[in-house]
Amino acid sequence: MSRTAELVLGLIGSIVGLVAGFWIIAYGNDVTDYIQTFTYLNGAVGDSIATLGWITVIASALALIATLLIKKSPRGWGVVLTLIGIVMFFVVGQIWIISGILIILAGLMALFRVPSPKY
């Protein structure tokens, strides 16, 4: 079964997440007022803009790897994509909206897409 839709959604979501993560790392201190509004973490991790950026980059890289391997094991990597997408909403919040939605959709499609019958 072709998993092109999952692959495309996951790639776009992962790349957008990588761009957002590097944006947070590079320009986070200049827009601290905005960045503080979208994190759900308190304490040392939530107060460090660079840490939030690196967490976003790492999660996006894992999502990219999961997306590239989704054709080999759709259910397993679909679970990984869905979990990354959901957990990252709580870690970085609003900056993750676009990439999170795309990654969650890719993961759910991989989980619940029914293979076509072979006659």
From TrEMBL:
The chain crosses the membrane at residues 7-28, 48-70, 79-112. InterPro entries: DUF4064 (IPR025273). Coiled coil: none annotated. Keywords: Membrane, Transmembrane, Transmembrane helix. Residues 2-90 form the DUF4064 domain. This is DUF4064 domain-containing protein. It comes from Listeria rustica.
